[in-house]
Amino acid sequence: MPATYEPIATTTLSTATASITFSSIPATYTDLILVYNGGLDPAANELLLRFNGSSSSIYSYTRLRGNGTSTASDRYSNTNFMHIGSPGNSLVIGNSINHIMNYANTTTYKTLLSRSNFTNREIMATVGLFSSTSAITSLLVAHSNSIRFLSSGSSLTLYGIKAA
User: How far apart are CA 107 and CA 93, in angstroms?
Assistant: First the structure.
């Protein structure tokens, strides 16, 4: 990672897990980068991200997807999560890189840029909005149905971007 990226926390899973939470995120950075690398269990069909434990309908996102054969785009408003990956219905390996801008600002809504790539499934780009002026102090990575989906050996790292 670039010198301006400072690791805040890393988790490597020893067993399949339904969700991971990064909490007590310091407000000392300009932006956050969340990186997921690993496999997803067969029953998983979407990764989600929630901020500050909020399951309120204050998230919206637009995504572009492609699988080498076809493309699609869709838009969701007033949802209770931010979509950050579509692994599909079989064990797949992939990654999701998520840039959360101005996360500590208490006067603006928070924006997200996300890229994901899951083998034998699709690549996806997402832009999202968290309609809250609260500073982001925790992140939850989960599956929309709360089933076991993050495979053993998968890793999640949260980085803070230092001010220039």
Answer: 38
Integer Cα distance of 140 and 26 in angstroms: 16
User: Is the Cβ–Cβ distance between 99 and 114 less than 8 Å?
Assistant: yes
C-alpha distance from residue 80 to each of 16, 58, 120 (Å): 24, 6, 28
**Average pLDDT score, the chain:** 87
Q: What is the pLDDT of residues 48-90, one digit of tens each?
A: 899 999 999 999 999 999 988 999 999 999 999 988 876 655 5
Query: Rounded to whole angstroms, what are the CA distances from 76 to 40, 57, 59, 164?
Result: 24, 11, 8, 34
Cα angle vertex 105, ends 81, 108, to 5°? 65
* Residue spans per domain, the chain: 5-161
**Do 158 and 139 meet the contact criterion of CB atoms below 8 Å apart?**
yes
User: What does the angle CA 23 – CA 89 – CA 81 come to, to the nearest 5 degrees?
Assistant: 35
On whether the 5-161 domain is CATH 2.60.120, my answer is yes
Output DSSP code: residue 121: T
DSSP E strand boundaries for 25-145: 31-40, 47-51, 59-66, 71-79, 82-85, 92-101, 110-118, 122-130, 139-143
- Please check the confidence at residue 151 and state whether its pLDDT lies above 80: no
**Tokens read off for 143:** 């599956």
